[in-house]
Amino acid sequence: MKVKKLAQLIALIGVVSPAMAQQAAQPMQRVEITGSSIKRVAAEGALPVQVITMDSIKKAGITSTEDLLRTISANGSGADNMTSGNNVFGADADRVSGGASFASLRGLGPNATLVLLNGRRVGNHGASGKAVDLNSIPLGAIQRVEILKDGASAIYGTDAIGGVVNFILRTDYTGLELEASYNATEAGGGMQRRYSALGGWGSLADQGWNVMASVTHDVNDKLSSSQRDFANGYQPERGLSPDTTGTPFANILTGAGTALGTGFKVNGDNTTYLQANPLSFQGKCDSIEGMSQYVTDLWKDVTAPTRTKYSCAYDYGADYVISFPVERTNAVSRATFQLSPEHKLFAELLGSRSEATAELTPVQISTSLANGAAYPVGGQYYLDMTQYIPSYDKTKPIIYKWRSTPWGNRTQKNVTENLRGLVGLEGVLAGKYDYKVGLSRAQSTTKTDLIDGYGWTDKIYAALGSGKINPWLQPGQSQTADAMQLIESTKFYGRLQHGKTTMTQLDGAISGEVFQLPAGAVSMAAGVDLRRETYEFMQDVDATKILLAPGNATQKEVSRNIRAVYAEALIPILKDLEVQLAVRRDDYSVIGATTNPKVSFRWQPSQNLMFRGSASEGFLAPSFVQLYAGRLSQELPNGVIDQEGCAKNPGNPAFCAIPRLNYNTGGNPNLKPETSKQGTLGMVVSPVEGLTASLDFWAINIQDRILNRTPQVVLNNWQFLQEYIIRNPQTGVIDHVEAGWINAAGLKTRGLDIGLRGDYKLGTYKTVATLDGTWMKSFKFAEFEGQPYKEQVGKFATRDVYLRWKHNASVSVSRGDWSVLFTNKFASHYADQVPNGGKGTPPPGFDPMVRHYSIFGVSGTYTGFKNTTITAGIQNLFDTDPPFTAHNVDEVVGAGWDPRVADGRGRSFAFNIKYKFF
Known about the structure:
918 residues, mainly beta, Maltoporin, Chain A, 22-stranded antiparallel beta barrel, 45% strand
């Protein structure tokens, strides 16, 4: 749309999407609901907004914002939490978000979910820079949470394709209260504690000012897989066994010039084998804790079917941490001054510090003659395997694969600090126009320190090559003091990397009734949003020199400016029909301008029935990492085939056997925004007094998705990615491949949100029953334009799993000072991962489905003591284990279970006490 036409549209109509809070507002109180800048009396609106109050959060025993998002059925089941997010591999892995948690409405990813605080943006995570870290939200000062389950780019700009999560803080509080919460697991580990204080002084009505402050401190203990029986990667009778020969008692490898040579045979067997372990020959792999005989039937290698017959395996998945130890402190303060009856001035300061200790299994090391780490001939721990392998050559060094447990678990401390200051003015002009204006500055920094388990690669190899370290410890044995001293001398301790984001924002809006139509008043709003965002990420040490350290490309500070204008209008067409219009234009200094409209309606033909719907366009601006991540020029090894060129020039080595091929990877400054077209259509019905039901169908189509792709993927999909294969214009030979972040094809997702609420009174008892459910009809995506869309609902995937049905239900009963809450959380079944792509032979006990997961909770609240509220409850009342899944931790954390769907804590006991002094 041209700028002139846009300006005319804004001047004539504006926009609005007043959404609906699922609880009654005070009579005639005009409030601003998430999704609109127009204040109005809260009522069922044109857009579905779910509201969660702080009271219900406490009664459910929720102690973190991450846990809160898990109770929202529209939130995805993905690796966007602190545990799973640390173990995502592949091109799309985010290795700089350790210790962070993100929202992902509709399973579209954190980038596509906008997180607000009191309706305004906050800074993105300091390391990844992609989205708001939920750990930075001060849960102890929350009044309620509003979740807009619809695209909102026409109101808020980028990030809002999947929806909006708006945390509303208390803003005018008088008194002093202290609160403590505890949540302890029955089986041990994972203890959660929260302490908070809230104080407020002054009355806006009586004194013309109010100052309030809140401080919350959370401490979560570590929960290890070893503390839960279901976290077990060795269950071969069910199709699960570790696919690794990096064991604490090392497996010996074959190789020219080594003790095993290039392969070996066993007496009476003409097969050539490639790995050996003396414990395997003795049938004693399981004599070392966590080890077992390698199950070759499950993990057949078509190129060498018997390579692992005489190898041991290691259940490293059972060594993983289910939940990190975390310590968080959040503080928020706000001062409000009533300048006059129509105008208020306020200042707000928000700060948080989150310290999460990520812990991974010990480094797996493969020694070789080339790296100098082979065990030397004559070393005191040299293994003689001639009794098992006649060809074993004791005059040659040993190369091996080893899980280096003496180095300890790889441990990273991630510290994220956030600070946000806001000054604002709001009120009423000319007695009828609401306005607001704010100036804010937000900053987030993340620092990652390596505190154990990591060492300098050359020093580690040299230490192993000395022969002083024993990689074949028997049960009960330990390394010598000299060996441990040598190991310690190789370690690296200190800062690995740090990142920083900043955001400076000036925003303002004005709204009110502008003229009358026969059906009622037309309300309009217009606003402006000016932002400057910066991002930098630095490696403090050369991670390539530290064995298996998570290195990332350094990015010097980059910035962008965003200028946006938007408008809204609420137009009563008939007495029972409202049309809402919205449009916003964002102009990015990097990617250019984009305009996104929205239209919605609300039709209420009777008091008990309402229809609503919306249609909109949205966009997602590429992140700083996607635009600017370090560009690396590299080479693919010999033998690369140009499939298109080879077909046209058969036999020509320049096309069919390319000697070396250059490629670039990393950020792509030419990326376009992702774009969306989406809509909702629903109804709200109240067939009898006290019962309300809502059904909202939603559909989202996204194009130009931004994905990270390897050069091999680009070459293998040359039909769809010609623009990324750069050829010599004269010869047609490939000059280089542009890999890394590219605009790929798109996705299509559809589903239905279902909400139920029943309020009943029986004598002196009051009962409230609720259901929040999401049925996902389809989630399809194609990686490249031209490829067919593939259905993902109900199937195992390595990043997100898209469940057919999720719900959270509750029933509360209250009478006088007592109330009781019953809850149920349900996730439907999905197809399991098949080990090794089905190349092996799953056993008769293998179940191809991951069963549904359903847990119940109960809590009771008592307010009979003066100024005191006490809540006690049990979560996972029946101690239900997560359903079994036949995957280990190579794709998603969880050996034999899936933390994206289930909770690994088991039955837990929650207790909360709040005392208000005045």
